[in-house]
Amino acid sequence: MNVRRRLIPTAALASATVLGLTALTACSTTSAADDKDGKLDVVASFYPMQYLAEQIGGGHVSVTSLTEPGQEPHDLDVSVQQRGQLEESDVALYLKGLQPAVDDAIDESGIKTKVDAASLTSMEKHGNEVGGHAEEHEEEGHEGHDHGHSHEGADPHIWLDPVKYAEVAEGVGKALEKADPDNAATYEKNTAKLVKKLGGLDKSFKNGLKDTDSKVFITTHAAFGYLAERYGLTEEAISGLDPEAEPSGKRVKDLQKMAKADGVTTVFYETLVSDKTAQTLAKDTGLKTDVLDPIEGITDDSKGTDYIQVMQSNLKALQKALGAK
Predict the structure, then answer these.
(1) What is the mean pLDDT of the chain?
(2) Residue 97 in 3-state DSSP?
(3) What's the average model confidence in pLDDT over 111-128?
(4) Is the pLDDT assigned to residue 292 strictly greater than 60?
(5) What CA–CA distance (Å, rounded) separates 14 from 42?
(6) Could you read off the pLDDT of 40-77 as tens digits, one per residue?
(7) Is 295 left (phi over 0), alpha (psi -120 to 50) or beta?
(8) Largest Cα–Cα distance in the chain?
(9) Against a cut of 0.90, is the pTM above it?
(10) DSSP 161
């Protein structure tokens, strides 16, 4: 017995741009790292952007995140103090469409180099849950994402695909080289090192999820569409628009049938939002619960201290839930 897949369809919305050309506003050819500490001041919108800046910039950059550890990034309001910080910075690194308040603040700032990660790789639509009913969102103009993101209807969770994240890393490296030419060689070297590390992570996911009992997993909301597509899996989201929303009775019944048909064992929840929805569904369906972290922030509850470690933890969780050989 098999059930109709609901969240596999995707539609490419944009091709990867020439790295750095459309993602940043060009600054002068002289080094921007000329303030009192001699470092390039980088403001990152949230953790995945912060991680890239720190890994690529190394000791030549001073990185500040607008989103505090443990703060749900989608709900961020940019304070007057943070707006002032933006004005004083050399580089802003963000993901347009994920945090509307950040988009507005960066657009209104006079910062020289604005790096939009969304324009450094291709963006896609992924299926979504609306009102507790599964729908397919292809090329019909629907908002195929959660949290009200608005990058032409695209799913913004590109950092959860190591391949796409590596493409973004390359673009960020080019941007830092242009903003701070005096240290361009270091940025280029660090970028290559990070891209290699992400390539290794991609290989681990490919090998680790190649042979599994099931290819379907359930999450509280649709954050893992890119990851699922990359590694031949199917994500089923309980409530795409709001990870804390209660699933409808019909949705619970649909998921019960699907779980039995596809050998699903686990309902995944996140670290930065309540696990109430996942626990409710698990209880109603007799399934286990576990964490699948969208890595929007690192906290004491995270299973790892950085992006790579948490992604490795995600891989182990998926292998266990899907019955990897």
Answers:
(1) 82
(2) coil
(3) 89
(4) yes
(5) 27
(6) 999 999 999 999 999 999 999 999 999 998 888 887 99
(7) left
(8) 67
(9) no
(10) S
